[in-house]
Write the structure tokens for this entry.
Amino acid sequence: MTKPTIGFIGLGLMGGNMVENLQSRGYELVVMDLNKDAVAAVLDRGNATEASSPKELAASVDIVMLALTTSDVVEKIVYGDDGILAGIKEGSVLIDFGTSIPASTRKIGADLAAKGAGMIDAPLGRTPAHAKDGLLNIMAAGDKATFDSVKPVLDDQGENVFYLGALGAGHVTKLINNFMGMTTVTAMSQAFAVADRAGVDRQQLFDIMSTGPSNSPFMGFCKNYAVDGVSDLGFSINNANKDLGYFLEMVKDMGTEAKIAEGTSTYLQAAVDAGMGDGNVPEIFDLFMKLEG
């Protein structure tokens, strides 16, 4: 069976490795990124071309894939004068692999549907190394027939591909996942800092807590930084802060509240304001060590 042609916008650490994986599996790519070195690396591997605009890219491929940073960026790429919506073909599919606001995703999906195109939101789990090997966790949602049409490609990108239902459910699930994960890391990092300030040895705290139900990979990441000085989670405070903001916006749209998330968001924002945003989330421990009431 002939492989679909894929357009890919966003060649950062995750997107670049996803594209390399697709190239290794014989897909023809059309790519775009502001980083021309990243584009050149794709072109040098062959079987790929560069588009001059999202409109041109969308008009030339069967599937458009996005690995972008924020909902605002996604909307600009979709709705600009030379954007995806202006060029996408009937029957094509847009897949958003980023972490976006579900309401924005549903709006884009409706506007694409009006042009006869489909959309899947498919946020990711795991690391860029998994992306390069086609071993991501993919949380996909959208019209089932549309999902079925692109699933063979998703299977080439992910070891675990979950179908979650109506468009937006993937982004809802990812935001809930990141709310849980980043709140856990923030709470555990503060626990280590409070122990230290109270004169309790951090290693001993870990030894005790890790024998009970609080033990988790996240505790290990927090211990690695708070006790051993190793920052190895690989998810930045800036990204965590963005995702908690999206989670709170989603909750507000649902007509409810999330005080726990508000607390996590307050500390993440304080870390960003303190110039710590590029650091990995467990490094928020340093903020708690200096925090004054």
In short: The chain has 14 helices and nine strands.
